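Summary of Year 1 activities. Much of the first year was spent building the evaluation harness for sequence design. The harness presents a backbone, in tokenized form, and records the residue chosen at every position. We chose the following record to illustrate the format because it has been used consistently in internal testing since the harness was completed.
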């Protein structure tokens, strides 16, 4: 027995240390098979088991006593990867157990939700998407990979590539907005940023495209809710960012919590095996979401834990995150001949392959360097990078009479609002790896920028939680009544030239489990804004929020509005630079802003309906009490300068599959400041074998122009851009007439027409 054991150890160690060879794919496969041969069934199943760290959680906590059992499981080799273990010290301690104390010494993978940074936080992903700047977004993910890997993380559960049209859903903050084309490009950029060109480097991390599939379409935006959508939306709207992620070489895919057309996605074999693996050839690891294998029981789909394990493994889910079901149930299913051991072997091979790809077999401690951790975490280079991203994420929604940018001198400023000196909310919801109160607040940013000539008044609290510090899982209590601070805020505003009001959502009003039934400005904040406006109408409204909000009153009354989302660690510095015009805002919305909650879903690429309007009589598709249009459309955002679009030209009116249409417009900076414009190209397919959206984004260009400068902006249109999932269930184009629109947002009105011919 003992001799066998020593031989095993020798063999495994032999395979583990041969660094050079791990670069060679074939040899890696040989090694994987050899390791697999050495493994007991329990050990194989252990690789498919992922546990949360022993100290902290991003989901419902396991029942009492479980933690200790988990620790014992780790020593028995019954854990393959962990999440929420952070920092070189903690990770080293656990990796040592895996490598030195388990029978085969197989290293663990350490995963974390590095969603928009680790310690140094960049803007929330929805904000970053508003930059439309793919290079900057890639760099932001690169920074996150650099920092998190220096703290020992090998794997991030990002990017979330779910499309959503419902701002009530708290997780829209984690995505790239409502548009499939843009989100697909952003998914690619972020995966490239996280994974780099070599996963085995100590400064890259494996990425995860999540949540497969359709989690962003939960009914009424209520988290974890049912999803019931048709094949057309699934294929044309939801799948493309996942396809783009697979094309970009994403290492892993996470399933969602939702059911889709009656089947929980974690147990949906047609989806995972049929579509993801067979159709799209995804070869990486599929991981469940937190407890989503177990949740198939309350879904009313799996009859019990055994059945849940069976459904999930048969569907193709390789790793069980925190359901604790694979490790307890899979063995019996094999013994009882309910599942074939080959299913286990297939999953384990993928998991071991990921460990090889990450270089963990080469050196299980390669990510664990105390010096590097100290040097990289929170370093000035990272802070500077997230500042650049933050400035580009801000969207100017309104600027009457050019109230912005502010003059640097001679202005008396009152800075008002519960978020004006908040150092937590700007960090957003996914701040679990970072430290509380580490964002530069707007007050701090402005004081640093212009000195101390600012009168600051909070005006009211946004939340009533003791100390204002909320945990990831904790409910927040909104202040709905206390207006006792209004008077001093009004006095400050009345004595000043300009009132800057910073309001919006607490960082924990969006994110997982943070759906809202109304998307208004919460608590007493709108009343505060109204009161301030009464005493001084020169108001600049700075919004911080993780979702589109109902801004109808503000839009009608307040002269200048900046949407700053949650901008991360450098919030106050970025906002100060934009307020004073050192950076001219260039962001454009990636989600439509509804006029009220009842309009939801409101999105630009909707269908025409059989009764489009407007019509004089009531018989057309509309609301009687609000317009059909959003308050601010997709793609919208102003600048301190102005841009003129003219001369839309196309070089041919007919296109076949072998040709390209060259399209151009003339763009001129007609204002007095240098600025950046996101020039957007939309195409409308006039008729199809299924109804087609009124227009779809098909291209965009970021153009930087000096005052008075003009330039021709060029696009190319080719047949593959016109493909869609059609009535034949094929991804193809259909002959006919198309319209092209180019302009500054999804209402672009410069128009041309062409025909796709045989
Ligand atoms: C649940 C979330 O849905 C998922 O996105 C996240 O990665 C896991 N929890 C782990 O924290």
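For this record, the design step produced the sequence shown next.
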């Amino acid at each position: 027995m003992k001799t066998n054991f020593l031989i095993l150890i020798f063999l495994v160690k032999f395979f583990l240390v041969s660094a050079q060879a791990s670069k060679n794919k074939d040899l890696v496969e040989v090694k994987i098979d050899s390791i697999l041969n050495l493994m007991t069934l329990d050990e194989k199943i252990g690789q498919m088991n992922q546990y949360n760290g022993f100290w902290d959680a991003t989901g419902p906590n396991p029942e009492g006593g479980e933690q200790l059992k988990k620790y014992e499981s780790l020593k028995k080799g019954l854990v393959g990867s962990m999440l929420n273990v952070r920092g070189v010290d903690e990770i080293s301690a656990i990796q040592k157990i895996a490598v030195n104390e388990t029978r085969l010494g197989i290293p663990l993978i350490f995963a974390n939700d590095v969603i928009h940074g680790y310690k140094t936080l960049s803007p929330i992903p929805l904000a970053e998407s508003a930059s439309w700047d793919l290079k900057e977004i890639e760099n932001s993910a690169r920074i996150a990979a650099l920092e998190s890997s220096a703290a020992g993380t090998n794997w991030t559960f990002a990017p979330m590539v779910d499309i959503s049209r419902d701002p009530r859903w708290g997780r829209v903050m984690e995505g790239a907005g409502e548009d499939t084309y843009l989100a697909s490009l952003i998914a690619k950029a972020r995966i490239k940023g996280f994974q780099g060109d070599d996963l085995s480097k100590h400064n890259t991390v494996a990425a995860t495209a999540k949540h497969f599939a359709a989690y962003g379409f939960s009914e009424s935006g209520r988290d974890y809710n049912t999803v019931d959508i048709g094949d057309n939306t699934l294929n044309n709207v939801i799948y493309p960012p996942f396809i783009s992620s697979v094309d970009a070489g994403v290492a892993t895919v996470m399933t969602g919590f939702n059911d889709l057309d009656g089947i929980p996605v974690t147990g949906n074999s047609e989806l995972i095996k049929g579509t993801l693996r067979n159709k799209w050839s995804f070869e990486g690891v599929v991981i469940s979401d937190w407890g989503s294998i177990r949740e198939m029981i309350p879904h009313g789909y799996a009859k019990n834990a055994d059945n849940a394990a069976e459904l999930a493994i048969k569907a193709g889910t390789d790793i069980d995150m925190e359901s604790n079901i694979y490790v307890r149930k899979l063995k019996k299913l094999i013994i009882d001949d309910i599942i074939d051991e080959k299913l286990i072997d297939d999953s384990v091979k993928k998991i071991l392959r990921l460990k090889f790809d990450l270089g963990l077999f080469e050196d299980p401690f390669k990510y664990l360097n105390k010096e590097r951790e100290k040097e990289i975490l929170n370093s000035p280079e990272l802070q500077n990078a997230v500042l650049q991203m933050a400035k580009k994420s801000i969207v100017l929604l309104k600027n009457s009479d050019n109230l912005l940018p502010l003059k640097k001198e001679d202005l008396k400023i009152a800075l008002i609002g519960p978020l004006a000196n908040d150092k937590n909310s700007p960090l957003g919801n996914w701040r679990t790896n970072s430290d509380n109160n580490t964002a530069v607040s707007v007050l701090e940013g402005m004081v640093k920028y212009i000195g101390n000539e600012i009168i600051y008044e909070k005006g009211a609290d946004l939340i009533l939680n003791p100390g204002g510090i909320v945990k990831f899982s904790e409910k927040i209590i909104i202040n709905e009544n206390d207006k006792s601070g209004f008077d001093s805020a009004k006095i400050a505003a009345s004595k000043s030239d300009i009132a800057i009001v910073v309001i919006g959502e607490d960082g924990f009003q969006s994110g997982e489990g943070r759906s809202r039934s109304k998307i208004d400005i919460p608590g007493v904040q709108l009343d505060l804004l109204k009161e301030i406006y009464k005493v001084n109408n020169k108001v600049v409204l700075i919004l911080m929020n993780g979702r589109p909000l109902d801004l109808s009153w503000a839009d009608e009354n307040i002269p200048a509005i900046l949407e700053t989302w949650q901008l991360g660690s450098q919030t106050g510095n970025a906002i100060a630079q934009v307020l004073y015009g050192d950076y001219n805002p260039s962001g454009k919305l990636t989600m439509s802003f509804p006029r009220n909650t009842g309009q939801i879903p409101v999105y630009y690429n909707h269908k025409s309906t059989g009764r489009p309007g407007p019509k004089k009589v009531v018989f057309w598709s509309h609301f009687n009490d609000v317009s059909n249009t959003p308050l601010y459309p997709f793609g919208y955002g102003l600048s301190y300068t102005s841009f003129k679009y003219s001369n839309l030209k196309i070089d041919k009116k007919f296109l076949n599959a072998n040709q390209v249409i060259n399209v151009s417009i003339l763009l001129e900076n007609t204002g007095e400041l240098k600025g950046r414009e996101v020039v957007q190209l939309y195409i409308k397919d006039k008729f199809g074998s299924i109804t087609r959206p009124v227009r779809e984004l098909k291209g965009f260009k970021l153009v930087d122009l000096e005052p008075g400068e003009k330039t021709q902006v060029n696009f190319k249109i080719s047949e593959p851009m016109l493909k869609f999932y059609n009535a034949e269930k094929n991804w193809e184009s259909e002959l006919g007439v198309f319209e092209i629109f180019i302009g500054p947002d999804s209402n672009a009105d410069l128009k041309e027409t062409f025909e796709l011919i045989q």
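Residues 58-59, 83, 113, 157, 210, 289-290, 512 surround 1-deoxynojirimycin (CB under 6 Å). Quantitative recovery figures across the full test set are reported in Table 2.
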